[in-house]
Design goal:
two-stranded antiparallel sheet; 2 domains; mainly alpha; 2 strands; Four Helix Bundle (Hemerythrin (Met), subunit A); Arc Repressor Mutant, subunit A
C-alpha cells in the first residue's frame, strides 16, 4: 500500500509548528519575548493545557527558554556552541584570535548582505544603537552591550536566520572580550567611529564598502587584542 492513513494532528503540535516556522523564517528572533499566556490563548484560540503542552515541547527542543514568568525565543545554536567556545578561550587566551578570524569571515559578508537587504527599520535600529553607544561612552558608562548589539543588528539586517542565530551564539563572548581588551577611551572612540562608517555604508546600500569597513574594524580589534595580550605577558 502506497499511502498511509491521515492521523489527527494534536492542537499542541499545530502550535509547535507555527512557532517553529516563525523562528525559521526569522519573524521571531533570538531574544524576542512571546506575548503573555492569556494573549497567546486568544490568538491561537486554544485551551490553556494545549498551549502549555506546546510551549513546554518547544522549551525541550531548545527553541524557547523561560526566564521568570516570561518566555523568550532562544538562539538555536546557543547550547551546542557558546559554552564550549567560551571554555576553549578561557583555557587558552590565544584562541581569541581564532574567534576574531571566524568573525572576519562571518561579519564581513554579513555587512555586505546587510547593505544589500537592510530595510528602513533595520537602518533606524542600527543608528539608534550607535547613538546609545556614543552616549554611554560620553557619560562614562558601560558601552559593551551596545557594541555587541550593533554587530547583532547587522546580522539581523541580512535577513538570514542562520546568520542571526550564529551571531546570537557569540553575543556574550563579544561583550566579555571587548570589556577586557578596550579600556583606553581614545581607542573606544575609534571603535565608535568605525561602527559609524560601517553603518553609513549599510545606510547608503554600498555592499563592498560595508564589507571593507567591517574588515578594517576587525583588523583594528585584532591589533588591539594582540597589544593587550602582549602587555599581560
Amino acid at each position: 500500500m502506497m499511502f498511509k492513513p491521515i492521523k489527527h494532528v494534536k492542537v499542541s503540535d499545530e502550535i509547535v509548528d507555527q512557532i517553529r516556522n516563525l523562528i525559521s523564517q526569522g519573524k521571531l528572533m533570538p531574544g524576542d519575548r512571546l506575548p503573555p499566556e492569556r494573549e497567546l490563548i486568544r490568538e491561537f484560540d486554544v485551551s490553556r493545557p494545549s498551549l502549555r503542552e506546546a510551549l513546554n515541547a518547544l522549551v525541550t527542543m531548545g527553541f524557547l527558554e523561560v526566564r521568570g514568568k516570561r518566555t523568550f525565543v532562544k538562539s538555536v545554536a546557543s547550547e551546542s556552541m557558546e559554552n564550549p567556545i567560551s571554555l576553549i578561550i578561557k583555557a587558552d587566551t590565544q584562541k581569541i584570535f581564532d574567534l576574531i578570524e571566524v568573525r572576519k569571515a562571518i561579519e564581513t559578508w554579513g555587512a555586505f548582505h546587510a547593505a544589500e537587504r537592510a530595510t528602513e527599520e533595520d537602518i533606524k535600529q542600527l543608528e539608534k544603537i550607535i547613538e546609545e553607544m556614543r552616549k554611554a561612552f560620553e557619560m562614562g558608562r558601560s558601552w559593551e552591550k551596545q557594541d555587541a548589539d550593533f554587530h547583532l543588528g547587522i546580522a539581523q539586517a541580512t535577513h538570514n536566520t542562520i546568520q542571526t542565530h550564529v551571531m546570537c551564539t557569540i553575543y556574550e563572548l563579544l561583550r566579555e572580550s571587548m570589556a577586557r581588551m578596550f579600556r583606553d577611551r581614545t581607542k573606544v572612540k575609534k571603535l565608535i567611529d568605525q561602527h559609524y562608517k560601517i553603518f553609513m555604508a549599510i545606510k547608503t546600500h554600498s555592499p563592498e564598502k560595508a564589507r571593507e569597513r567591517t574588515l578594517e574594524h576587525l583588523n583594528f580589534v585584532e591589533l588591539e587584542v594582540k597589544a593587550s595580550t602582549n602587555q599581560k605577558k
